[in-house]
Specification:
heterodimer; A: 125 residues; mainly alpha; Methane Monooxygenase Hydroxylase, Chain G, domain 1; 3 helices; B: 400 residues; two-stranded antiparallel sheet; 2 strands
Chain lengths: 125, 400
């Protein structure tokens, strides 16, 4: 009987081997491309694309804060999921008490979403 | 067999174990490559059919080698790296996009008889599951990898130092993380019923037609399918590369092999996402079993798995051919105001039903009726809230 830790590490070792193979494939493709491709540098080729006309203004431009706010909201729900996943696998052990606990937890987090909604964060205009 | 040294120094590994790993890795790798090539061709051909065109038909029989021809062409293209770009991140991004797409496939069980057996097959004298790896937290691994894939898209667009790619990538990031929340919340229902996070465990729980598709009551499946499509940036959620607005989106500045890598990652993600849907909701390799032993352990389960996989590949192409693209505010509204609350609510109902069926002194039918009633009342309130917020928006002078 193999010990459980041993077995666990072996599973991830296989994943690591697979990742290595993927890495090697990406490297090999780029390598073959490097060998085969032509190289005829011209200054115009290295200008950023802007629908065919000469680009205007600063290229390292800024974007809106709204996207960032969604990232913050996402953290709320991802942390929530981290707590719920282990709970969900062991529900029968916790029973009705565990269910009420989780309902309270989800309710508090849902309040976070409602707050964001009321604040107009989810509004996209 | 003399045991070799374990790379993790945690015990001896025999030669046949190494053979098993090598066999699995090579087969999975080859399958993914062939599947991607097939998927690209299949999508073009099917879209062609749906739009009453012929589609690719020159390279090979029925144009099946078209993908190969396109791929080879890209090797002969000049590789451009814009002066403005952040050189290191620009080169790093394709790796970050492609490798997670690879890794998700490692935890998908592609065969093995789970209906009348325990899912293992005999390979080089070793009893093993037909999946590359079976970590105990397989589902979390899938979610983690799809989160890492966001980095590839985000960094590709940002490092180009150009306007369209930047817009495409911030859009992509916001979209992918929003729908990832909905995705993981809908998976919770499956976890609840299966009681395990391992993919092989989930498949084993679904043997004998106990598929999660109906056991979880269709709603988690619908949420997963929708948010999975959004996670893949496939139409109707392809705002990331909306050609009319953003040229090519985050990979506008990429050319030659680096572009091919993004393309590969996109189609690989489509294949793996279909495989994950089949695993979580449609019982993976489960299906009717008959015939001799070799047929039951090797052929039939894999056949069922690939048939189901094929159904979802078809569905993704069908979506693209029929549905018009969402507008960005509609996309965000649907994710945050509809899918996430629905997934959470349905999860709580399932948990309630589960607890009630474990307890003999609780009336199960009552719990089901009250739960579903509360769920639909909640969704009704949500719709009302959305309508009133839309009215407010119109009053404040912004047209919807």
């Amino acid at each position: 009987m193999p010990n459980p830790l041993n077995e666990l590490l072996r599973q991830y070792l296989t994943v690591a081997i697979f990742a290595g193979l993927g890495l090697a494939m990406v490297g090999a493709m780029l390598g073959v491309g490097w060998l085969l491709r032509p190289d005829r540098p011209e200054p115009q080729k290295y200008i950023n694309y802007e629908s065919g006309v000469d680009p205007l203004g600063v290229m390292w431009s800024q974007s809106q804060i709204r996207y960032y706010v969604f990232a913050l909201l996402f953290v709320l729900f991802d942390v929530e999921a981290v707590f719920i996943f282990p709970w969900a696998t062991r529900l029968e052990a916790y029973g009705a008490f565990g269910l009420i606990e989780m309902a309270v937890f989800i309710f508090i987090l849902a309040l976070g979403l409602v707050y964001a909604w009321r604040k107009g964060v989810l509004r996209w205009v | 067999m003399t045991p070799l040294v374990d790379p993790l120094l945690s015990g001896p590994i025999g030669l046949q174990e190494i053979l098993v790993v090598v066999f699995k890795v090579v087969v999975a790798f080859a399958f993914l490559m062939v599947a991607v090539m097939f998927m690209v061709w299949f999508e073009r051909k099917l879209i062609g059919d749906m739009q009453n065109r012929i589609g690719p038909n020159r390279a090979g029989p029925w144009g099946i080698l078209q993908t190969l021809a396109d791929g080879v062409k890209l090797f002969f293209k000049e590789d451009l790296l814009p002066d403005n770009a952040d050189r290191f991140v620009f080169k790093l991004a394709p790796y970050l996009a492609l490798i997670p797409a690879f890794l998700i496939f490692t935890v998908v069980p592609v065969g093995g008889n789970y209906s009348t057996g325990d899912g293992t097959v005999s390979l080089f004298g070793e009893e093993t599951l037909l999946q590359v790896a079976d970590p105990p937290v397989g589902v979390l691994f899938v979610l983690a990898m799809s989160s890492v894939a966001v980095y590839g898209v985000m960094l590709a667009g940002w490092s180009s130092g150009s306007k369209y790619p930047l817009l495409g990538s911030v859009r992509a990031t916001a979209q992918m993380i929003s729908y990832e929340a909905a995705l993981s919340l809908s998976v919770l229902s499956v976890i609840l019923l299966s009681g395990t996070l391992s993919t092989s465990g989930i498949v084993a729980e679904q043997s004998q037609w106990n598929w999660n598709l109906w056991l979880t009551g269709f709603i988690p499946f619908a949420i997963f399918l929708i948010s999975g499509t959004a996670e893949l940036n496939r139409p109707p959620f392809d705002l990331v590369e909306a050609e009319q607005e953003l040229v090519g989106g985050f990979h506008t500045e990429y050319s030659a092999v680096r572009f091919a890598l993004f393309f590969l990652a996109e189609f690989m993600n489509t294949v793996t996402m279909s495989a994950i849907i089949v695993t979580l909701f449609l019982g993976g390799p489960n299906g009717p079993m008959f015939g001799p032993e070799w047929l039951q352990s090797w052929v039939l389960p894999s056949l069922w798995f690939f048939l189901k996989l094929f159904v979802f590949l078809f569905v993704f192409v069908w979506f693209r051919a029929t549905l018009p693209r969402f507008r960005y505010d509609q996309l965000m509204d649907m994710g945050w105001k509809l899918l996430i609350p629905a997934a959470l609510g349905w999860f709580l109902i399932l948990a309630g039903i589960q607890v009630a069926s474990d307890n003999d002194d609780i009336n199960l039918a009552l719990v089901v009726i009250v739960g579903v009633a509360i769920f639909f009342a909640g969704m009704g309130l949500l719709m009302l809230a959305m309508r009133s917020s839309r009215r407010q928006r119109q009053l404040s002078g912004v047209t919807d």
